[in-house]
Queue: 2 jobs
Job 1
Amino acid sequence: TGVAMMKFKSPPVNSLSLDFLTEFCISLEKLENNRACRGVIFTSAVPKIFSSGLDITEMCGKSTEHYAEFWRAVQEMWLQLYGSNMVTVAAVNGSSPAGGCLLALSCDYRIMVENPKFSIGLNEAQLGIVAPFWFKDTFVNIVGHRVAERSLQLGSLHAAPEALRFGLVDELVAEEKLQEKAAAVMAQWLALPDHARQLTKSMMRKAMLDRLVAHREEDIQNFISFISKESIQKSLRMYMEMLKKKKS
Amino acid sequence: TGVAMMKFKSPPVNSLSLDFLTEFCISLEKLENNRACRGVIFTSAVPKIFSSGLDITEMCGKSTEHYAEFWRAVQEMWLQLYGSNMVTVAAVNGSSPAGGCLLALSCDYRIMVENPKFSIGLNEAQLGIVAPFWFKDTFVNIVGHRVAERSLQLGSLHAAPEALRFGLVDELVAEEKLQEKAAAVMAQWLALPDHARQLTKSMMRKAMLDRLVAHREEDIQNFISFISKESIQKSLRMYMEMLKKKKS
Amino acid sequence: TGVAMMKFKSPPVNSLSLDFLTEFCISLEKLENNRACRGVIFTSAVPKIFSSGLDITEMCGKSTEHYAEFWRAVQEMWLQLYGSNMVTVAAVNGSSPAGGCLLALSCDYRIMVENPKFSIGLNEAQLGIVAPFWFKDTFVNIVGHRVAERSLQLGSLHAAPEALRFGLVDELVAEEKLQEKAAAVMAQWLALPDHARQLTKSMMRKAMLDRLVAHREEDIQNFISFISKESIQKSLRMYMEMLKKKKS
């Protein structure tokens, strides 16, 4: 049918580690270069979680070189996904904070399971860190400046019904209908001539993609100098401790 | 009363041919230079259609010179209408796809007949073509980035109730109330001092108008090279065939 | 608790005179430099009015030097408030036209008393004058381009329920619950780490603040040349006469 399915299976929470990101980018590039493939549906094989976002262990107590490599991989994921020529649909079957939210926001369409226990949002501020400008721009383009300003400052995670109300996701469906719905949406988008759809998508997104490409090294340096601060390292360690306690 | 009415009467579908556009611009300029005229209401004399948009026959099998002349006329229509000092109200009494939608979007206010059979939208992608950046910017300014991104990629035509929900039109009224409502809206806008209203309008729109003026020749060249492609010509011919079959 | 309350008490209508603005800026700067203070709630001690906006007597029949000094003070208020590192909450307990609306829009969050007799908006056009670009940009960032374009051209004052619908304020509460609600919202915002919240706020607002800083003198000259026009002076005198008659 020309549609691929990419199912995230990196238990326990599909965190975006360097390995995950590398594999994601290789897989996406293969699909991108496969002329038979016109669309991709992203979903999770892990119950209750779509993706927990950037892997905090990659940002804690590592070398400058590691931070640079990791951040370049995060950028690469966004550049490839936001700029993909394929139709990209996120079938969000679980919570999706921070980088997991960015992944969903970078698709063309988002369907979320209508479970109010599942939430989505760019909650970086809660961890004491700040979303980079291209996370912010992606978010503003979807929910508008005001909702973004408030949500980013509060580090809000929006439960599914609120996520729909704010336009963070495009629709909610029952979990058992998710794949059927994703396939139907994909068919609707693929009914358009690829060439016109791709040029239109590029017209909407190119300025933003170009902005990161132009400032890529600077953005990496910003990340390194921010994440290397002792106060930030301490915040992240405390956050990881909290997560561990929560689990046990 | 200082209010003019421009009634489109170019059967069967008020398509924006070179002749139509030329006459539109001459008429609008006359009103603009007439100090007694402070507002214009645009509506259609053709049943069920406001305007079907750019005349496809002007873009099919013609010379490069013709394409250039036609595209310059399309630009001119938008520059004059979007930048008009008068209050401009679209009384949308029928469907309004593509260029017809742009015409309505370029006014200060849009009232649409509440008939769900009437639709409006920038559906260029359905024809295999791409709306130029200034169509896109006009659309984004009205419905926001997210709605625009989705609608443009899908080439959506929105039935009147959905058009209202997305903010594509400002209100719906029964057909028999349309002219009365348009006159009432016009009176409300004309109650403001012209000078302050015009400066405010210019503050909101000048950057966009300047952008096309600065890139006008480039935009014409883009149009010519795009429309001259054999694949695009083929798409348009197929679309015209489909329209003919539909009619008969 | 680290939260200050600034209560406007300049009867009869809390108009933003040069004295008011000067005192406002001195007070805000003191709080900004007080490390114990993390948030400010703005409200009015005058019944039924939050702030009536710029004091028209400062713009009528005065010297060029006076206009320059006054306008610099208006700019300063916005630069300090919009760029504040503290959490800023407007507890809007009365009407808030023009500059009063700007003051509220420059905060992080707006709670308005749910009295439909209280209204808010940038109604400058009604007075025959034009909101400067940074009033407009602040407004657009909150309500979006389309609502801003219409509201600014019509000089609309939105009654509380409509203000909520357009996103001009974030919520409505009964008058007796206003202070309690403001304190609760403040606590929610202060629960975030200051550093991450401040950097996020700056990321959202810095480009706009920089734009005024870069064009500050030009903006003052624009104001002076506009306000010095005899036609504008006449409009303002007529408006003041109307206000006087309304009162008596």
Job 2
Amino acid sequence: MSFTIKNALVATEDSYATVDVQIRDGKIAAIAPELEAVGTIVDGANKLLLPGFFNAHTHSSEMWQRGIMSVLPLELWLAELYDFAPLDTEQVYLSALGTAVETLLSGGTSVVDHLVLIPGLELETIATAVRAYREVGIRAFVAPLIQDESMTAGIPSGESAQTHEPYFRSTAATLELIAEAVRQFHRPDEGVEILVAPTGIQLCTDALFSGCIELSSRYNLCRHSHLLETKAQAKLAQEKYGCTAVEHLSRIGYLSDRTTLAHCVHLTDDDIAILARTGSTVVHNPLSNLRLGSGIAPILKYRQAGVNVTFGCDGASSNDSQDLLEAIKIGSILHNVTDLDYQHWITPRQSVEMASLGGAKGLNLGEQLGSLTVGKKADLVLYDLRNLSLLPRTDPIGLLVLGRPTNVVDSAWVNGKQIVAHGQVTTINVNNLRQELFNLSRWDTQRKSPTVAQIEAHYRQVMGLL
Amino acid sequence: MSFTIKNALVATEDSYATVDVQIRDGKIAAIAPELEAVGTIVDGANKLLLPGFFNAHTHSSEMWQRGIMSVLPLELWLAELYDFAPLDTEQVYLSALGTAVETLLSGGTSVVDHLVLIPGLELETIATAVRAYREVGIRAFVAPLIQDESMTAGIPSGESAQTHEPYFRSTAATLELIAEAVRQFHRPDEGVEILVAPTGIQLCTDALFSGCIELSSRYNLCRHSHLLETKAQAKLAQEKYGCTAVEHLSRIGYLSDRTTLAHCVHLTDDDIAILARTGSTVVHNPLSNLRLGSGIAPILKYRQAGVNVTFGCDGASSNDSQDLLEAIKIGSILHNVTDLDYQHWITPRQSVEMASLGGAKGLNLGEQLGSLTVGKKADLVLYDLRNLSLLPRTDPIGLLVLGRPTNVVDSAWVNGKQIVAHGQVTTINVNNLRQELFNLSRWDTQRKSPTVAQIEAHYRQVMGLL
């Protein structure tokens, strides 16, 4: 399957050029002005061609609760989230489709889904999400969210002695579940990977982390976790380990150049040096960090220390969208208020590189994806520069990153297969998806989380909120 | 002209109701279930009806430079902006149309345009913007941006003795210009108001402020200024007055219940008390404050002190969009990182009230606009809840404010006149606008600001950036 994009605008070192791009067998075969047209012709005139971005951290099924979650910090918000979590695979299917569509239509061609598993239907949940992503054709990194401690263990004890229910599934059974998911669904050549994804130090034992490291080595899997999203987690790490979470994860060998770590808000300078040394990747989720009041991740410090950084939307209940361009914009400009020296601020071209090559590197695919380079896989997005939100014509990348582009994705390809054309997803029927989302939901404002009611007093006390 | 919106969802105290809304003679005449249909029928089923929002601070002609401005703090950014500012009224016309369209399609029915005047064509600039807003039909508060000191006077002197060129137009001539604009264009009953709008303490003498106060009293005009946007301005106020800018403006009588103040990032607790006592309104421009690294305005403190707060996009060169829903979202969630106690955080319903009634109050129109109240003017927006970005159905206001709604404005009315229908602006041809913006611009990355080159060393020195 070959095609040629004619006369597209592409970024050069500090400007733009108009070129043709040949794609053969799913790969970029040539980039130059006035190439011979092979295969189908795609008109790239007045359009900007960029490598596809990575939505490098999300939880697809949170789409069902976007807009309705109370204004709460992570620990209480999670309690509310789980009280009302979706419990059937039809919902998992539709929210994976929705996540894929919103990601694609905002420039993403890859999604890392830290997938919440329905208890008792774990493999079915994974199978369903994989099916949805295959149908859409987006590149999917399915990271089944696992833990082996119960929810309440994620809140620091403070002065009080807290006991927690044991988690309902054993560590060994959880690891076996992931091994089975790998056997059934891990198909890197087909654009579907399974990741080991222990949720984070707040709810995982060392046994679970070690088992994940072992699976990661045995099957060559990437690793994905939350890390130090909140002040409460930083406190908890000290209670649990007597050192920072990063020091502990480094000691047990979890950090590596194929480990992506969502959030990374509360790290020390020493922690940052450890991330740099281990080649770990930070996934910045700015909207979620603001929505949940988690804090501002020190992204400028990461960049100065040479830590690889990319962007994620996070789950739609803490965002409450899957618009990757919005996450990139806010994740870029937010940090200008943390450093008076504007020479350290992120430029739009740097943002694009973080969102594309930064994501690819984190998933150990920096040689295969993330830039317009001959020989790399053709995960590409073509933006329509005649859209009102990208006018007047100024600097196209500046306006794409710093503006509020809407309806600007004209075409998108994954592995050389076109899955968006003329602004529409071509692989699934989005109108049917809308209708099903509508039919399976109802407007609501009156819900109350029983778990929040149980744990709020302890949370306020241990966090010094009186 | 009468019409009835049938079966629309509206917010009740803590839930929603489905009602009919009758509009007669530009005003809301009745709100209740199953009303008699008067005039044209508008189908409100599966749609949310809200009062129109206020884009309470922008500079329309900045649209010409959105996306291309360097990553710089305000003082240097302004130098670059003015080096490349548009110089003809055709550009002013098109960017006012563009600002109106983007504001309308993101829920705004009023715009406060702190309009940059073309030197020598001041009244023509104002006439052109007024004409554009009248054509679109958006409610327009045109605030001609005036000053009587030159650009370089806006940067603190520090230890060095700085001298500045005198401003090219006298204070008296500037005040006469505004008086003439009022006579020609101030037509509150027709939805067009002129505001007195000295840019701020950084570039205005007390004589200019006093003249504006006098015009404001004589013609019953609202007042609009920038206030303490940057740390540099806080420094400058101390150099100029030996006290804070708020103390000074209060002493000379500029603050009032019809004074709106853009930014308000660097205020002391005493300053906040003065804003509350004088009934002044803060216009929060979160995206611009992040983009320019100005800081995070202490919005939660304002709310706790009883200061009225509303939202603005600010000019499109520091945002770089005019999507009001984006400004409302970020302006709401940004503050969660400034206060650990989530009980102080802004809820989506509070955001809606700030964006509607908050804007109306600031413009001394709280009795006439800003809420769905019988007897108020019909500035209304109907949102389509079947749009993918507002699905699944959860809490419509939560999802509108915290999500990333795109293409969701189905209809909008100003003074009872419909100006958006079926998602399209009906009063002007937006495709022609796009074509003209395209034709009058070109892609560019290579510009360099000579003024930035001149003043950067002094700026870095006085701000302690070495």
